Amino acid sequence: MMNEDASQVATDAVSSIRTVASFCSEKRITRIYEQKCEASKNQGFKTGIAGDIGFGFSFLMLYLTYALCFYVGGQFVRHGKSNFGDVFEVFFALMLATLGVSQTSAMASDSKKAKDSAISVFALLDRKSEIDSSSNEGLTLDELKGNIDFRHVSFNYPTRPDVVIFNNFTLHIPYGKTIALVGESGCGKSTVISLLERFYNPDSGTILLDGVEIKSLNINWLRKQTGLVSQEPVLFNDTIRANIAYGKDGEVSEEEVIAAAKASNAHEFISSLPQGYETSVGERGIQLSGGQKQRVAIARAILKDPKILLLDEATSALDAESERIVQHALDHVMVGRTTVAVAHRLSTIKGADIIAVLKDGAIVEKGGHESLMNIKDGVYSSLVELRSAHHENA
User: Fold this and answer.
1) Which fold has domain 148-393?
2) Is the pTM of this model over 0.70?
């Protein structure tokens, strides 16, 4: 555990070396690493002393046994009570037994580590996941429209059981419509997406898809019906083609990849790259800009052709020009699909068919942009005014 903490500091420093260098924190990181290693070093020192003393004592007993055997055997031969052959038979029997005991004691610490490791491995193997993504059980619908219903849902994250995220949360999302979820940070907007993807199960209440509870649906089939575009897109250290093709099982043709890229406004910038679709994006997509990464992620979602599109603040980390391009791509993708968008920017929110305002884990306002703005002292109008004032000051 102590070595893991030190390794984590080193890993974070190497993977974020630009941030470390920009803050001139090399010495600070080195000092933190040394502090993390200090506890491990002290523990290793104590363990080493105990192990060395035990190791030395075991060999001391081995050689003392040799000496005792030779002395007693010599006395027996001297007084005629035994012969040379019998003495050495006993000597070798005792020597081999003592050698086995000494080696066993020397490896006692290693055997304890092996035992603890085995317990940990078998505990993981025996653990049953509440949501088993490899399960083939569950229903599949012949035809999916995309009606979504949250009915009296209550939920707490397992790591924060005392923090209530949803309490009697109810929301209807009609198929083919775009619903924007807005509210202050921590009000549960992204949790809606996590529950729809079945990353978690609600503590109580039901979530229905076309009138069927999603718990009864096959989890792989359910996730194939949804396309997720996050605020920080995850790209793999591979080519652009491979990252787009990741969105679909089986073989993907060149035409499908290019069509998805064109639909996401990514084809133009990809074609301008020296290696085109064979360009490597680097670790975590570091070779591409934020807008380029987002468009590749959208192309991956388009290739999946989902009935339900989930957008978790897909444009909030982009500059104005990149946001315009990405939003234009999303507008095309959202047509004919049920879309759930977590958004902060007004440009994204205004175009939604329905805007749901969350506060303290419940829907407090719901409707179109104009109708919500007409509510006197409304939560939505207050949020819009605050953001408008923030942009003006910026």
Assistant:
1) Rossmann fold (3.40.50)
2) no
